[in-house]
Input
Amino acid sequence: MLVGGRSRRMGFDKASLTLEGRPLAVRVASAVNRVCGSVTLVGDPEKYRTLGLRVVPDKFPGAGPLAGIEAALRLTTSEWNLIAACDMPALNTSVFEELFRTAVTEEGADCALPQYPDGRVEPLSAVYHRRCHPVIRAALEADIRKITDALRPLAIRYLRVASEAPFANLNTPEELRKYLNG
Output
């Protein structure tokens, strides 16, 4: 799970934001754990060691979420991996399970991404095979930072979702207020 963002628009660390008595990262990690059985955070180990989860750094500091995906896939021992951002408090296990089903049952799939009704995709709540690692690393080495650009050489399968709501992320104080006010 990715926790290493700068949280510039929020103005404070989103991963440590307390929602319903738990840090946001721990809340999202709990949902991931119910499907995957284990969770590793990608971010600053010193900063996030108090969350009680394994934390690994990325090798491309400042390169954005693609660097977090690279770190997760470089270090994994699992064939299929759920990559999730820590700032999506409404994520639910049924979407994760559907993503895994899509990835595993679609012949030749390298990854499975949710696709919104308007065609946009969500690469930060998606399932990636570890064989994606060399492609993602090469993209970073070529100074490509946009995730969807890095994924172009891969066989992507899409899970059409009815709504963006489960994937809403908290990037600004206004989005946080809106989420808290329901």
